[in-house]
Design a protein that fits this description.
The structure is a single chain. The chain has a 3-stranded mixed beta sheet with strand order 1-3-2, with helices on one face. The protein has 4 helices and 3 strands; from the N terminus they run ααβββαα. The chain is of the alpha+beta class.
Length: 162
């Protein structure tokens, strides 16, 4: 529906031209069409609204409501090598930022991207839920293994409810 409205707007704009005010000040307003850069998708699969939804949902599920969590959809070069998401947090301020890979950079089949991205959000939030634990920075592979298993289990449990 939204796409139809936008198309109708651009059709009307193209046919009738920019709207001009007939008020005494003779002000005019011009709306430029959205410029789409090469290599970007005007209809992205992953949206910021969907990311906000997942974070709020899993934040409640994992009892992390006392945290202020920002989210960003980023390009591949903004994440560590071979990462599809990451999280940074501050325990004293209880603020965190989750960054997830933009769907345009995903190597997964389109049908799997959203499910994988939600899993990534859950994964990062499980890391956050474990942030108070005294973990050995020299042996993060043990934490990573536990977080992977918990994240998959949570999503499997959620899927079984549907």
């Amino acid at each position: 529906m939204r796409a139809v409205t936008v198309l109708l707007f651009f059709f009307a704009f193209g046919v009738f031209g920019p709207a001009e005010s007939k008020s005494a000040g003779n002000a005019s307003r011009t709306t430029s069409p959205q410029v789409v850069r090469a290599g970007t998708n005007p209809n992205p699969l992953l949206t910021q609204d969907l990311l906000y939804f997942w974070i709020a949902k899993w934040q409640r599920t994992l009892a992390l409501e006392d945290w202020s969590i920002e989210s960003k959809i980023v390009r591949t070069w903004e994440l560590p090598e071979r990462a599809v998401a990451n999280i940074h947090w501050s325990l004293p301020t209880k603020k965190a930022t989750i960054r997830v890979l933009d769907s345009v950079d995903s190597s997964l089949p389109r049908s799997e991207i959203l499910k994988d991205t939600e899993l990534s959000v859950v994964h990062e939030l499980v890391h956050l839920s474990m942030s108070k634990l005294p973990l050995d920075p020299n042996h993060t592979e043990l934490e990573e293994e536990a977080v992977k298993k918990l994240s998959v289990a949570l999503l499997t449990l959620e899927d079984s409810k549907k």
